[in-house]
Amino acid sequence: MTIYTRYMIGRFVKPFVFGLGLFAVLIFLGDTFDKMNPIMRSHASLLTIFECLWLEVPYWAGRVIPMATLLATLVAVGGFVQSGEWLATQSCGIETKRFWIPVLGCALAVSVLAFAAQETVMPAAWARSRRLWREKVHPEWEWTKYQNVALLGGADQFVQAWVFLAKEGKLERPILETMGDHGVDRQLDAKYAFWEPARGRWVFHEGVERTFGARGVVETPFETKVSDLDAPPLDLVPRATSPDELTMREALAYARRAGRFGGSPREYEVAAMAKFAYPFTNLVICALGIPIALRLRRSSRVVSFCAALALSFFFLWMMEVGRTLGVSGQLPPLAAAWMANVGFGALALVLIRRWDL
Protein backbone atom coordinates (compact mmCIF):
# COMPACT_ATOMS: atom_id res chain seq x y z
CA MET A 1 0.00 0.00 0.00
CA THR A 2 1.45 3.36 -1.07
CA ILE A 3 1.72 6.47 1.09
CA TYR A 4 -0.79 8.16 -1.21
CA THR A 5 -3.31 5.36 -0.72
CA ARG A 6 -2.96 5.46 3.08
CA TYR A 7 -3.36 9.23 3.02
CA MET A 8 -6.61 9.07 1.00
CA ILE A 9 -7.97 6.30 3.24
CA GLY A 10 -7.39 8.57 6.24
CA ARG A 11 -9.20 11.40 4.47
CA PHE A 12 -12.17 9.10 3.83
CA VAL A 13 -12.45 7.31 7.18
CA LYS A 14 -12.76 10.34 9.48
CA PRO A 15 -15.78 12.00 7.79
CA PHE A 16 -17.30 8.55 7.21
CA VAL A 17 -17.28 7.70 10.93
CA PHE A 18 -18.58 11.18 11.79
CA GLY A 19 -21.38 11.00 9.21
CA LEU A 20 -22.36 7.46 10.18
CA GLY A 21 -22.70 8.41 13.83
CA LEU A 22 -24.50 11.68 13.14
CA PHE A 23 -27.03 10.32 10.64
CA ALA A 24 -27.74 7.22 12.74
CA VAL A 25 -28.30 9.27 15.92
CA LEU A 26 -30.60 11.74 14.15
CA ILE A 27 -32.82 9.01 12.70
CA PHE A 28 -32.73 7.02 15.94
CA LEU A 29 -33.82 10.06 17.99
CA GLY A 30 -36.61 10.81 15.54
CA ASP A 31 -37.90 7.24 15.79
CA THR A 32 -37.63 7.29 19.60
CA PHE A 33 -39.60 10.52 19.90
CA ASP A 34 -42.26 9.03 17.62
CA LYS A 35 -42.62 6.13 20.10
CA MET A 36 -42.59 8.31 23.22
CA ASN A 37 -46.33 7.95 23.98
CA PRO A 38 -46.38 4.12 24.24
CA ILE A 39 -43.01 4.19 26.02
CA MET A 40 -44.37 6.55 28.71
CA ARG A 41 -47.42 4.31 29.22
CA SER A 42 -45.38 1.10 29.27
CA HIS A 43 -45.06 -1.05 32.41
CA ALA A 44 -41.73 -2.45 31.21
CA SER A 45 -38.58 -1.73 33.20
CA LEU A 46 -36.22 1.02 32.12
CA LEU A 47 -33.59 -1.62 31.37
CA THR A 48 -35.98 -3.42 28.98
CA ILE A 49 -36.94 -0.17 27.23
CA PHE A 50 -33.28 0.81 26.92
CA GLU A 51 -32.40 -2.62 25.50
CA CYS A 52 -35.26 -2.41 23.01
CA LEU A 53 -34.15 1.01 21.79
CA TRP A 54 -30.42 0.24 21.83
CA LEU A 55 -30.89 -2.88 19.69
CA GLU A 56 -32.34 -0.67 16.96
CA VAL A 57 -29.02 1.17 16.53
CA PRO A 58 -27.41 -1.42 14.17
CA TYR A 59 -30.49 -1.26 11.93
CA TRP A 60 -30.51 2.54 11.68
CA ALA A 61 -26.73 2.58 11.20
CA GLY A 62 -27.12 0.17 8.28
CA ARG A 63 -29.80 2.37 6.73
CA VAL A 64 -27.59 5.48 6.74
CA ILE A 65 -24.29 3.95 5.62
CA PRO A 66 -24.81 5.19 2.00
CA MET A 67 -25.31 8.76 3.32
CA ALA A 68 -22.12 8.51 5.35
CA THR A 69 -20.24 7.09 2.35
CA LEU A 70 -21.34 9.95 0.13
CA LEU A 71 -20.49 12.55 2.77
CA ALA A 72 -17.02 11.02 3.23
CA THR A 73 -16.48 11.02 -0.53
CA LEU A 74 -17.49 14.67 -0.91
CA VAL A 75 -15.35 15.80 2.03
CA ALA A 76 -12.30 13.69 1.12
CA VAL A 77 -12.25 14.53 -2.58
CA GLY A 78 -13.39 18.15 -2.16
CA GLY A 79 -10.80 18.83 0.54
CA PHE A 80 -8.05 17.20 -1.50
CA VAL A 81 -8.86 19.46 -4.45
CA GLN A 82 -9.35 22.65 -2.39
CA SER A 83 -5.98 22.27 -0.70
CA GLY A 84 -4.22 22.15 -4.07
CA GLU A 85 -2.99 18.60 -3.46
CA TRP A 86 -4.78 17.38 -6.59
CA LEU A 87 -2.74 19.72 -8.78
CA ALA A 88 0.42 18.63 -6.95
CA THR A 89 -0.27 14.95 -7.64
CA GLN A 90 -0.97 15.69 -11.29
CA SER A 91 2.27 17.63 -11.59
CA CYS A 92 4.06 14.55 -10.21
CA GLY A 93 2.67 12.51 -13.10
CA ILE A 94 -0.03 10.60 -11.22
CA GLU A 95 -2.87 9.62 -13.56
CA THR A 96 -6.27 11.13 -12.83
CA LYS A 97 -7.92 7.72 -12.37
CA ARG A 98 -5.38 6.80 -9.67
CA PHE A 99 -6.59 9.83 -7.73
CA TRP A 100 -9.97 8.28 -6.87
CA ILE A 101 -9.11 4.55 -6.82
CA PRO A 102 -8.32 4.58 -3.04
CA VAL A 103 -11.68 6.27 -2.36
CA LEU A 104 -13.52 3.65 -4.42
CA GLY A 105 -11.55 0.97 -2.56
CA CYS A 106 -12.77 2.38 0.76
CA ALA A 107 -16.35 2.33 -0.51
CA LEU A 108 -15.94 -1.28 -1.65
CA ALA A 109 -14.62 -2.24 1.80
CA VAL A 110 -17.60 -0.49 3.40
CA SER A 111 -19.94 -2.44 1.07
CA VAL A 112 -18.42 -5.77 2.08
CA LEU A 113 -18.58 -4.94 5.79
CA ALA A 114 -22.16 -3.68 5.44
CA PHE A 115 -23.16 -6.92 3.72
CA ALA A 116 -21.52 -8.98 6.46
CA ALA A 117 -23.29 -6.97 9.19
CA GLN A 118 -26.59 -7.25 7.33
CA GLU A 119 -26.30 -11.03 7.29
CA THR A 120 -25.26 -11.39 10.95
CA VAL A 121 -25.74 -8.64 13.53
CA MET A 122 -28.47 -6.44 12.07
CA PRO A 123 -31.30 -8.97 11.55
CA ALA A 124 -30.74 -10.58 14.95
CA ALA A 125 -30.65 -7.23 16.78
CA TRP A 126 -33.71 -5.90 14.94
CA ALA A 127 -35.72 -9.09 15.54
CA ARG A 128 -34.85 -9.01 19.25
CA SER A 129 -35.82 -5.33 19.46
CA ARG A 130 -39.18 -5.93 17.73
CA ARG A 131 -39.88 -8.88 20.01
CA LEU A 132 -39.21 -6.81 23.15
CA TRP A 133 -41.44 -4.05 21.79
CA ARG A 134 -44.33 -6.39 21.02
CA GLU A 135 -44.11 -8.51 24.15
CA LYS A 136 -42.95 -6.16 26.92
CA VAL A 137 -42.84 -2.50 26.00
CA HIS A 138 -46.09 -2.24 24.02
CA PRO A 139 -47.93 -5.61 24.36
CA GLU A 140 -51.46 -4.52 23.39
CA TRP A 141 -51.86 -7.49 21.06
CA GLU A 142 -51.94 -9.91 24.02
CA TRP A 143 -55.52 -8.90 24.72
CA THR A 144 -56.71 -9.48 21.17
CA LYS A 145 -59.12 -12.27 20.25
CA TYR A 146 -58.32 -13.67 16.81
CA GLN A 147 -61.12 -15.33 14.84
CA ASN A 148 -60.94 -17.49 11.71
CA VAL A 149 -57.16 -17.31 11.55
CA ALA A 150 -54.50 -19.22 9.66
CA LEU A 151 -51.24 -19.58 11.59
CA LEU A 152 -47.76 -20.80 10.76
CA GLY A 153 -46.42 -23.27 13.33
CA GLY A 154 -43.11 -24.90 12.46
CA ALA A 155 -41.22 -25.20 9.20
CA ASP A 156 -43.90 -27.45 7.70
CA GLN A 157 -46.84 -26.87 10.03
CA PHE A 158 -49.99 -24.93 9.31
CA VAL A 159 -52.75 -24.22 11.84
CA GLN A 160 -56.30 -23.06 11.23
CA ALA A 161 -58.54 -22.10 14.13
CA TRP A 162 -62.00 -20.65 14.63
CA VAL A 163 -60.80 -18.73 17.71
CA PHE A 164 -57.25 -18.11 18.97
CA LEU A 165 -56.76 -16.66 22.46
CA ALA A 166 -53.02 -15.97 22.77
CA LYS A 167 -53.05 -14.84 26.40
CA GLU A 168 -54.91 -17.98 27.55
CA GLY A 169 -52.96 -20.25 25.20
CA LYS A 170 -56.13 -21.69 23.71
CA LEU A 171 -57.31 -22.70 20.22
CA GLU A 172 -60.95 -23.44 19.45
CA ARG A 173 -61.75 -25.77 16.54
CA PRO A 174 -58.07 -26.09 15.57
CA ILE A 175 -56.82 -28.01 12.55
CA LEU A 176 -53.09 -28.74 12.49
CA GLU A 177 -51.67 -29.82 9.13
CA THR A 178 -48.15 -31.18 8.67
CA MET A 179 -46.87 -30.71 5.13
CA GLY A 180 -44.79 -33.21 3.19
CA ASP A 181 -43.21 -33.35 -0.23
CA HIS A 182 -46.54 -34.03 -1.93
CA GLY A 183 -48.91 -31.99 0.23
CA VAL A 184 -50.52 -32.69 3.60
CA ASP A 185 -49.09 -35.78 5.33
CA ARG A 186 -50.95 -35.59 8.64
CA GLN A 187 -53.81 -33.64 10.11
CA LEU A 188 -55.12 -33.14 13.65
CA ASP A 189 -58.73 -31.94 13.76
CA ALA A 190 -59.96 -31.24 17.31
CA LYS A 191 -62.58 -29.41 19.34
CA TYR A 192 -59.98 -27.35 21.17
CA ALA A 193 -56.28 -27.27 22.08
CA PHE A 194 -54.28 -25.85 25.00
CA TRP A 195 -50.67 -24.85 25.33
CA GLU A 196 -48.95 -26.80 28.12
CA PRO A 197 -45.68 -25.06 29.16
CA ALA A 198 -44.46 -28.10 31.11
CA ARG A 199 -44.50 -30.22 27.95
CA GLY A 200 -43.63 -27.40 25.59
CA ARG A 201 -46.35 -28.65 23.24
CA TRP A 202 -49.92 -27.95 22.20
CA VAL A 203 -52.29 -30.66 23.45
CA PHE A 204 -55.36 -31.34 21.30
CA HIS A 205 -58.63 -32.61 22.81
CA GLU A 206 -61.65 -34.49 21.42
CA GLY A 207 -60.64 -34.87 17.83
CA VAL A 208 -59.42 -37.12 15.07
CA GLU A 209 -56.00 -37.72 13.54
CA ARG A 210 -55.88 -38.19 9.77
CA THR A 211 -52.91 -39.73 7.97
CA PHE A 212 -52.66 -39.31 4.20
CA GLY A 213 -50.77 -42.00 2.31
CA ALA A 214 -50.78 -44.26 -0.71
CA ARG A 215 -53.70 -46.27 0.73
CA GLY A 216 -55.81 -43.15 1.20
CA VAL A 217 -56.89 -41.47 4.42
CA VAL A 218 -56.62 -43.26 7.77
CA GLU A 219 -58.60 -41.68 10.63
CA THR A 220 -57.88 -42.32 14.32
CA PRO A 221 -60.12 -40.70 16.95
CA PHE A 222 -58.57 -39.47 20.21
CA GLU A 223 -59.59 -37.87 23.47
CA THR A 224 -56.21 -36.23 24.14
CA LYS A 225 -53.30 -35.94 21.73
CA VAL A 226 -49.92 -34.29 22.37
CA SER A 227 -49.02 -32.71 19.05
CA ASP A 228 -45.66 -31.92 17.45
CA LEU A 229 -46.53 -28.22 17.49
CA ASP A 230 -44.01 -26.60 19.87
CA ALA A 231 -44.49 -22.94 18.97
CA PRO A 232 -45.62 -20.99 22.10
CA PRO A 233 -48.80 -18.89 21.87
CA LEU A 234 -46.87 -15.65 21.50
CA ASP A 235 -45.01 -17.09 18.49
CA LEU A 236 -48.29 -18.07 16.84
CA VAL A 237 -49.77 -14.57 16.92
CA PRO A 238 -50.65 -13.78 13.30
CA ARG A 239 -48.26 -11.08 12.23
CA ALA A 240 -46.16 -10.79 9.13
CA THR A 241 -42.45 -11.39 9.56
CA SER A 242 -40.59 -8.27 8.52
CA PRO A 243 -37.87 -8.84 5.90
CA ASP A 244 -35.63 -6.67 8.10
CA GLU A 245 -35.62 -9.49 10.67
CA LEU A 246 -34.25 -11.98 8.13
CA THR A 247 -30.96 -12.59 6.37
CA MET A 248 -30.91 -12.95 2.60
CA ARG A 249 -30.99 -16.75 2.84
CA GLU A 250 -33.82 -16.66 5.38
CA ALA A 251 -35.82 -14.26 3.19
CA LEU A 252 -35.53 -16.64 0.21
CA ALA A 253 -36.56 -19.59 2.42
CA TYR A 254 -39.50 -17.59 3.78
CA ALA A 255 -40.57 -16.72 0.22
CA ARG A 256 -40.60 -20.41 -0.74
CA ARG A 257 -42.52 -21.23 2.42
CA ALA A 258 -45.10 -18.51 1.78
CA GLY A 259 -45.59 -19.84 -1.74
CA ARG A 260 -46.19 -23.38 -0.45
CA PHE A 261 -48.94 -22.12 1.84
CA GLY A 262 -50.68 -20.18 -0.91
CA GLY A 263 -49.31 -16.71 -0.09
CA SER A 264 -47.44 -14.32 -2.36
CA PRO A 265 -43.66 -14.75 -2.16
CA ARG A 266 -42.86 -11.60 -4.14
CA GLU A 267 -42.27 -9.27 -1.16
CA TYR A 268 -39.66 -11.61 0.31
CA GLU A 269 -38.07 -12.41 -3.06
CA VAL A 270 -37.62 -8.69 -3.72
CA ALA A 271 -36.33 -8.20 -0.16
CA ALA A 272 -33.77 -10.99 -0.62
CA MET A 273 -32.47 -9.43 -3.84
CA ALA A 274 -32.42 -5.99 -2.19
CA LYS A 275 -30.33 -7.36 0.68
CA PHE A 276 -27.67 -8.21 -1.87
CA ALA A 277 -28.01 -4.94 -3.81
CA TYR A 278 -28.27 -2.48 -0.91
CA PRO A 279 -24.71 -2.81 0.51
CA PHE A 280 -23.24 -2.09 -2.94
CA THR A 281 -25.18 1.15 -3.00
CA ASN A 282 -22.15 2.47 -1.11
CA LEU A 283 -19.84 1.76 -4.04
CA VAL A 284 -22.24 3.28 -6.58
CA ILE A 285 -22.92 6.38 -4.51
CA CYS A 286 -19.20 6.88 -3.94
CA ALA A 287 -18.54 6.69 -7.67
CA LEU A 288 -21.31 9.24 -8.19
CA GLY A 289 -19.97 11.44 -5.41
CA ILE A 290 -16.48 11.81 -6.94
CA PRO A 291 -17.49 13.94 -9.97
CA ILE A 292 -19.98 15.84 -7.78
CA ALA A 293 -17.17 16.64 -5.34
CA LEU A 294 -15.07 17.93 -8.22
CA ARG A 295 -17.96 20.15 -9.22
CA LEU A 296 -18.33 21.40 -5.64
CA ARG A 297 -14.59 21.74 -5.01
CA ARG A 298 -14.92 25.41 -4.03
CA SER A 299 -17.95 24.87 -1.82
CA SER A 300 -18.03 24.66 1.97
CA ARG A 301 -18.56 21.48 3.98
CA VAL A 302 -22.09 22.62 4.78
CA VAL A 303 -22.87 22.52 1.07
CA SER A 304 -21.29 19.05 0.86
CA PHE A 305 -23.39 17.90 3.81
CA CYS A 306 -26.62 19.18 2.20
CA ALA A 307 -25.67 17.65 -1.16
CA ALA A 308 -25.02 14.30 0.53
CA LEU A 309 -28.43 14.40 2.20
CA ALA A 310 -30.30 15.39 -0.97
CA LEU A 311 -28.62 12.86 -3.27
CA SER A 312 -28.83 10.05 -0.70
CA PHE A 313 -32.54 10.55 -0.13
CA PHE A 314 -33.17 10.64 -3.88
CA PHE A 315 -31.14 7.45 -4.35
CA LEU A 316 -33.00 5.68 -1.50
CA TRP A 317 -36.31 6.92 -2.89
CA MET A 318 -35.47 5.33 -6.25
CA MET A 319 -34.64 2.07 -4.48
CA GLU A 320 -38.03 2.20 -2.77
CA VAL A 321 -39.73 2.81 -6.13
CA GLY A 322 -37.97 -0.27 -7.50
CA ARG A 323 -39.05 -2.33 -4.48
CA THR A 324 -42.67 -1.25 -4.95
CA LEU A 325 -42.59 -2.16 -8.64
CA GLY A 326 -41.11 -5.55 -7.76
CA VAL A 327 -43.67 -6.36 -5.05
CA SER A 328 -46.53 -5.33 -7.34
CA GLY A 329 -45.23 -7.67 -10.05
CA GLN A 330 -44.38 -4.96 -12.60
CA LEU A 331 -40.67 -5.82 -12.44
CA PRO A 332 -38.84 -9.10 -11.73
CA PRO A 333 -37.33 -9.16 -8.20
CA LEU A 334 -33.73 -8.94 -9.45
CA ALA A 335 -34.45 -5.97 -11.71
CA ALA A 336 -36.45 -4.22 -9.00
CA ALA A 337 -33.65 -4.55 -6.45
CA TRP A 338 -30.86 -3.41 -8.78
CA MET A 339 -32.75 -0.71 -10.72
CA ALA A 340 -31.36 2.23 -8.72
CA ASN A 341 -27.81 0.83 -8.56
CA VAL A 342 -27.66 0.21 -12.30
CA GLY A 343 -29.15 3.60 -13.21
CA PHE A 344 -26.99 5.67 -10.87
CA GLY A 345 -23.96 3.49 -11.59
CA ALA A 346 -24.26 4.21 -15.32
CA LEU A 347 -24.56 7.93 -14.60
CA ALA A 348 -21.49 7.79 -12.34
CA LEU A 349 -19.48 5.98 -15.02
CA VAL A 350 -20.34 8.63 -17.61
CA LEU A 351 -19.41 11.50 -15.28
CA ILE A 352 -16.16 9.90 -14.14
CA ARG A 353 -15.10 9.19 -17.72
CA ARG A 354 -15.65 12.86 -18.58
CA TRP A 355 -13.33 13.94 -15.77
CA ASP A 356 -10.82 11.20 -16.56
CA LEU A 357 -10.54 12.34 -20.13
Range of helix content: 55-70%
Q: Tell me the number of strands.
A: 7
Taking all Cα atoms into account, the compactness measure Rg is 27 Å
Q: Shape, please?
A: elongated
The total domain count is 2
Order of helices and strands: HHHHHHHEEEEEEEHHHHHH
What share of residues are in beta strands?
15-25%
Gap between N and C termini, in Å?
26 Å
Helix count from the secondary structure assignment: 13
Content-based structural category:
alpha+beta
Low-confidence stretches: none
In round numbers, the mean pLDDT is 84
What do you see in this structure?
With 357 residues, the protein is an alpha+beta fold. The chain has two domains: 3-120 and 257-356, no CATH class; 143-240, no CATH class. 60% of the residues lie in helices and 18% in strands. The protein is built from 13 helices and seven strands. Helix 4 (57-82) runs antiparallel to helix 6, helix 10 packs parallel to helix 13 and helix 11 (281-295) runs parallel beside helix 13. The longest helix has 32 residues, at 3-34. 32% of the residues are buried.
